[in-house]
Amino acid sequence: MINYKKLTVALICGTILTFPIAGCGLTAQTTENTAATTQQGITLTSSQSVADTSGLTLEFDEEDTVTSYDSTTASYVTLSQNGSTVKGSGVTADGSTVTITQAGTYVLSGTFSDGSIVINTEDKATVRIILNGVDISSSTTAPFIVQSAKKVIVTLADNTVNKFTDSARSTTESEDYSAAFYSKADLVLNGSGTLNINAGYRNGIKSTDDLKVVSGTYQITAAEDGVIGKDLLGIADGNFTIKSGTDGMKSTDDKDTTKGNIIIAGGTFKIEAASDGIQAENILDIQNGTFDITTGNGSAAVEMKSGDSGAMGGMGTMGVPGQNGSAGTSASSASISSDTDSVSMKALKASNAIYICGGTITLDTEDDGIHSNDSITIESGNISIRSGDDGVHADSSLTVNGGAITVGYCYEGLEAKDIVINNGDITISAEDDGINASDGSSTMQTGGFGMGGQNQSSSNSSALTINGGNLYVEADGDGLDSNGSITVNGGTTIVCGPTSSGDTAVDFDGECVLNGGTLMAFGSNGMVETPTSASNGSCIVAGFTSQQANTAFSITDSNGSTVLSYTPEKAYAAAVCYSSDLKSGQTYTVTAGSTSQSVTVNSSVTTSGISSMGGGAQGGGKMGSGQPGGMQSGNGTGGDASGNAGGGMSLPDGTTDGQGNAPQMPDGTQGEVPGMPGGTTGSGQMGGQPGGNAGGNGGMNAQNSSSNGI
């Protein structure tokens, strides 16, 4: 049965119907005939065809899409500061105030230099306002006020520009209409005209119930928020240009779990917000649209200083054979320089969940690009982010099922407790970690080296799982980082990782299991961690002399055929490579620039050119870049968590003590930290090597050279 009462922008994609609409690829028209005129509804369109999992629907009553009116029954108001004229019933003009007291259709035109439109009716029917070229300003109250109504539909007449302006004024106890266009009832906006809002007092457009937009052009400048739909902000289409003193668009109900949502099925959005761009108290669901959002002063306003994140955490004591090393200290989290650290300046933000099913999204943010206090699901879309903090951050879970995501500048690229990448094209350039699975704690622990015994794990339940897609990560910190486990089941992952020896291309505190796909991860050889196991192929972990950026790397088989090859864009001295084409029992030639080594794969994970030892996880902070005379200021501080051993971690070949001797491994004793030649200790100290003080607090002196590990 066709339901002519509702037009539903149902966010369950793949089916195209009319009345109701089901599908992200949706079209619909409504026609309602009367004796006087034909009412023609607008077309709701969206090219999105990817399944949405939010469970939300954006519903429109049939009347919401109607833009024409019956000219024989409508009332007309011509605004004038010298006295407005009224033709019809249900409306009165008294000085600078026009009051509508009955349901019906009202056509407004003209200019009020200091006045307002007030809608106040107890009727159980809809009030329809046709804005046919108005210019209304007020210095004492909101120029458009809905005090009481069942629902108000505002139509922007074709080829008209309609302006509403309020001025800065003092809040009074008896009246605080906090927006230039203010409604205490459900508010629907449609039509093809333009609505210009200049909100000098506080907000631009606000409904304390639902605010739905079918179409129209909106140019909004607001001292505070641009657009607010307290219970719901739903947008089918429209062209929005917003410049706001706080948030661009928001839904604010935090009492009812079914409210506080934002649903955007389409439209064009240009938002410059001093705080958040689009913020939902509950769920933000983006189906389609074109978004260009800048928050704060953009990503360029944030100075990410080398070494700000502190030194690598201290090493624990050396364990005797058959025993585990003791706990080490942990490094502090990153410090990012910004003048407005206490203000949230995220582009897309939700307290509970964010769903992105399509659209073209360009974000330049002083804070996170996309942020949820719980979960984020990306199904599709073309997303480009430059962020002063994280590109995409979810406190709980981040799932990427498709789309193209480019994080061109950020502190960390993707971050969540649990990250699952099933598909998509992802490119990340990060000042610290590229992809970070973390439970939200600011530190990671460092364990002692265990010799000959079972390595303990300092892992938690965080997990990074890559099932498919194409990933490219360029990171100054860890490339792939998990405070728990890393599992690669498919896809192609390329990592151009750190040049500092305190970070590594693949970093994990629990297990790193390779089951499928292709992994090529390049970085320094100072803290190489070897994957725990590999199946359906083999893994080669190779170290070699330092190679300059843009030096070709390859693995060839015994016939000279290339199995894997890549030219890293950064300097590197180690590579972690996995492929189903690497076979156990076969011998391969690993070539980096002009150096080559022969590697026979004799286990699922084979190392070559690396002195591998079972080891604990690294300190969570990014190590300061060593300069002559000491490290740059990193000020890494000691942590408190037990630093148990994680996956295999390595010391660079040729590590010596202060006299040029290999560091000794005392028989269960807790020896002093071996010194390095020459330098003095910088403020961003690197943790001690095996044999450090109990608790791992020994500092290692910086050399009089760059301590970049390559």
UniProtKB/TrEMBL annotation:
Residues 1-22 form the signal peptide. Pfam families: Cthe_2159. This is Carbohydrate-binding domain-containing protein. Residues 700-710 have a biased composition (Low complexity). It comes from the Bacteria. Residues 606-710 are annotated as: Disordered. Keywords: Signal.
